[in-house]
C-alpha cells in the first residue's frame, strides 16, 4: 500500500501537469524518482501510461483509466481518514443532555449505562430542568439534545421521536381505587389528594379538569417534586395525580398503581426527543441520540405502563 500510494501521488501529479519536471517541483521530489516509479508500474502492467512527446507527457488510454481510478482511490482514502478522525473525536467526546424531572429515573439512567458499556470513551452530562428550560438549553446549544413535553410550538427544535403520555391517579399497591384501569376526574371527589405544583407541566391539565368538571380540589398536600409526590402516596397520605411517565418505574415494580383519567376534554401530552433545528449533532452526540431514540417508544402509554396481569 505505501509503495502504491507513493506511485499514485506521483502519477496523478504528472498526469495533471503533463510534465515530470513540473511534478517534481510541486512534490519536492527528484524527477528521477518519479520517472522510476512510473516506469516500474508500466513494466508491471505491460503497457505505457503516458505518451512521451517533445512537448511533454500525455495520458494513454491505460493512463486515463489509471487516472480515474486514482481519483476514486483518493476520495475513498479521504473518507476513511474522515471516519478515523470521527473515531478519534468519539474517544474523547462529551455529550450534554437536558431532560425533565420525570426522566431522572428508569429509562434514561438505564440507557446511559448501556451507552457507556458500548462506548466507554463517551462521557455524558445530564441536566434535569424545568420543561421550558429544556427547550432553551437545546436551542442555545447548552445541550446537544433533550426531552421535553409539548414541543409543537417551538420552531427552533426538530422532533426526532415522540410518544404520548397521559394523566392519571396514583395509589399504593392494593388500594381499591387502583383496581380501576380508567376513571373520570370526578371520581376523586371526597378523597385526600396529593397534587403537583408549578412549574410541573401537568398543572395546566389539572386546571382544565377543574374548570370543566366543576370539582375544586382542596389538596391534602402538594409538591413541585415528582419523587416527593410518589413518596407521599406510598406513605398513604392520599391519592396522587401525575402522568404515566412519572411512575413507569414504580408501576412496573408493583409498588404503585396508575388509573388513567378518562375525561374526554383531556388529551394525551406529547413527550418529544428534540435537537436544535439550526445545528447538526456531533458524531458522539449522534451515537447517544440514536441509542436513546431506539428505545424511546417504551416511555409511551399504555405499552410500558401496563403490567403483565392487566
From TrEMBL:
Pfam families: HTH_1 (PF00126), LysR_substrate (PF03466). InterPro entries: HTH-type_LysR_regulators (IPR050950), LysR_HTH_N (IPR000847), LysR_subst-bd (IPR005119), WH-like_DNA-bd_sf (IPR036388), WH_DNA-bd_sf (IPR036390). The keyword DNA-binding applies. Residues 8-60 form the HTH lysR-type domain. GO terms for cellular component: cytosol. Keywords: DNA-binding, Transcription, Transcription regulation. PROSITE patterns: HTH_LYSR. GO terms for molecular function: DNA binding; DNA-binding transcription factor activity. It comes from the Bacteria. Belongs to the LysR transcriptional regulatory family. This is LysR family transcriptional regulator. The lineage of its organism: Bacteria, Pseudomonadati, Pseudomonadota, Alphaproteobacteria, Sphingomonadales.
